[in-house]
Amino acid sequence: MGPISSSPTASLTPSAPGLIRVKSLVRASTVYQNMIDRIRRQRSSDSDSFLSSQSSHRHEPSNQASSFGLGPYGEPIKYLMCANQSTRVRAQKRCTEQGLLPCPRCQLVKYCSERCQKQHWPRHSSACAHPYLEESWQPGWVLQERLPSFACSSATFSPSSFIFPVFDTLNLTQNEGEGAFDKDYKLCFAAYADIRNLVETVNNLPSNYKGRFDVLINNSDPIITNRNLIILYALLNPEPSIDEAVELAIHFMYSAVLSAPSAAYLQRCLDDIYGQVDGCNSDFSFRASLNTRGKGRIYSFQTIAGVKQPLEMFTSTTYSLATALQNRWEILDASENVDSWDRFLSRLRPSHRMAYQRFRETGVLTPFSVDTSRFMHPNRLMFSSQGEWLGRRNFNPLQGWDATSVQVEGAKFAMIESADIFGCLFFYLKSQFRRFAYQVKDLNVNFVVTQFNPQILAKGISAGVIPIFEGACFDRVDTRDMMDDIRIEVCLADWGPLLNRGNPFASLLMYSRAWHYERPYALARCNPHAALMLFMQKCFEIPSLNNKLKDAFVQGLRSPALLRLIESLDAFYDHDGIFHEFLAAQNTESAAAAFGLGLRPRNLIHPKRFGVPLDACAHSLPDISRSQFYDLASLCEVDFSARFLEFGWRH
Ligand SMILES: [Zn+2]
Ligand SMILES: [Zn+2]
User: Which residues surround ligand 2, an ion (CB under 5 A)?
Assistant: First the structure.
């Protein structure tokens, strides 16, 4: 699942290949043409826009990267600036020095000098004295001496939202090895939600990789597919400088509000991608072929109908920034969400509470001290055509990333304290996206973006209708959590035959969150006896926990500490026996054997569960430090009961 969920109406749009539904598509084609005309009219009427001033030569390759003025101050943020800055106070000159001295109280901002710190204090004091920064801060339900609203539901202790972690889906070094750095590889993300795993995988290709790398990225949801196509193109489009492009892609992906040049650039990307009607498109299918910075290209094959809804959304002019922000806030601040937000904050260190609060208020992913007042355009990739917020209630950009690396690299690249967690994430993403852009520039990487029901796509590939990918060609197929919807057998039958028989390391990947839904006793948090045993064991291991636990038990389910403890139980609980019961009930082994495949006893791509090493065998339990646990459980909200399955050739 990407950071943003699909629109409520997304499922109404069919996603079968165009050949089947020609009639409705011809009509949709007219709508699409009207829309393209509208974009062009908008563009030509806006004489100030750089779109019109540069559009005449936009397809000509230029030797020098153009500057689009995409950052909050007209240029990308290269380092953490002194926090003594505000564009609101026109009279005050902005300090452009590097921020080096952290505010000793909150550690969220840094200054170049004590002078700047003193000057800035009147503006910083309210944030620095916020109740969230108090160690003693308590959730609203504790202060009001009532049970939290979520305590009544049966799904109390299950993470409400979850994004699968980022990982290198190819993992050449652990598989094919150095001797195979000159081979071609084909990879399929059959139901990808965002570009994270794609970025991680391409970034991990060795810089001396000589082969051709082709990736098929598919999702049946038109909004998700097209949003990611735009983000990918924004990142790899050769025109802006790489520094600008990466910053832009970060905001497209995570910020609800954009600066004026960013919004204009979004419009321009739309025009480049969807404006290519001449020659490339037949009556019923949408085809795009886009330049990247390197040898490779981005192709997209969709139906015209599939492109219609996202394009309406991305080019909508029916709502204002105020409406968009109001709609967003109504969802974030709805009364039924107040307790779950407090519960999330109660797991965090004080400075992280404040960092999340700021991100929630501004909707912009930047370091804490950056003035976001220039972000004045709704990010139309995140709002429906009517301006409804399509993000989740507790939208957490750290989900799915490796929060430990985020903090380490934040410190390395920009000397940011881990307190400014979004500052760390901002610079971490910049470095990841930058490497991605350079890898695509230097290597031969091609992307094919499609929007089909994965089962129909699998059949289409077998029939050879998707160019570049024909038949059994894939070295890896990542089916994400499809097995939770269509059973393992079906997944194997669809994708097993498409694995490359010539590659002994070809793998089919599946993940599951739902495996225990019909076996609630599989989890410690739902199993009082197991929970009690774990409590006792913990108390024995950490004597100081005894007193804390007594306090917690007195408060019962009102106690944030007790809630945290119950939530963490599954991280250290061996559910392997019941998981294998589940696999047997799904006929996993025999279904896999029918295609010459078997479930790997030791994984080669991603560990079997969170917190265990890659080569862990059955019944291994996580062995992680306290801070790793905080990063995984509190910052990234992982679901410790999630499982990762890998199928490889039987030997
Ligand atoms: Zn402070
Ligand atoms: Zn300064």
Answer: 82, 84, 95, 97, 112, 116
Distance 29 CA to ligand 2 centre (A): 55
The ligand placed nearest to the CA atom of residue 109 is: 1
CA–centroid distance, 418 to ligand 1, in Å, is 14
Taking the centre of ligand 2 as the mean of its atom positions, its distance from the CA of residue 403, in whole angstroms, is 29
Does residue 46 register a pLDDT over 60?
A: no
B/e letters for 37-59, b = 16+ CB within 10 Å, e = fewer, are eebeebbeeeeebbbbeebeeee
> Both tokens of residue 176?
């094919």
Question: In 167-192, which positions are buried (b, 16+ CB within 10 angstroms) versus exposed (e)?
Answer: bbbbbbeebbeeeebebebbbbbbbb
* Mean pLDDT, residues 491-515: 96
Structure tokens that stand for 15 in this block:
């996603």
How far apart are the C-alpha atoms of 641 and 9, rounded to whole Å? Answer: 31
- Those residues whose C-beta lies under 8 Å from the C-beta of residue 216, and which sit 6 or more positions away, are 186, 187, 188, 189, 448, 450, 466, 468, 469, 474
Q: What is the pLDDT of residues 304-346, one digit of tens each?
A: 888 999 999 999 999 999 999 999 999 888 888 888 899 999 9
> How many angstroms separate the alpha carbon of residue 81 from the centre of ligand 2?
8
Alpha helices in 205-296 (DSSP H): 222-236, 242-254, 260-274
Q: pLDDT tens digits, residue range 131-147?
A: 999 999 999 999 998 88
Residue showing tokens 């006893």: 601
Stretch 455-468: mean pLDDT: 93
| pLDDT band, very low/low/confident/very high, at 72 (cuts 50, 70, 90) | low
